[in-house]
Amino acid sequence: IGYRYGSLVEDFYTGYMLLCEGWRSVFYSPAEPSFVADFPMALNDLLCQCKRWAVGLLEVSFSCFRCPLTFGLRHSASLIAAMSYAHYSFWPLWCIPLTIYALLPQFTLLLGLPIFPK
After folding, report:
1. Phi then psi for 32, rounded to 5 degrees?
2. Which residues contact 6 (CB under 8 A, 6 or more apart)?
3. CA distance 79 to 41
4. Sign of dihedral through CA atoms 80, 84, 89, 95?
5. Where primarily located (predicted)?
């Protein structure tokens, strides 16, 4: 189904488009689950799934016509809903500061440089 929309995250895109068309969201929690999810069993499968999600979310966030910051505000989405979808769609970019903050202390210890000025 994701190829129909041109995105790998069709659930995100479908929910976002329905919100922009004026649909209202509700939380429904049945007594017994109607669907039991399937999850990756190996680390390689999990990494492939996370990469697929990251690529799909970045495709939606950097597209000219579907960016959550611009498209939702031009249509019937509220500012809070557009910001929530933007936060979720730009989630893959968090890997950059996390990687820097994870590697910076190790490099400074190896090179003998102080992290903070004296």
Report:
1. -120, 140
2. 59
3. 38
4. positive
5. membrane
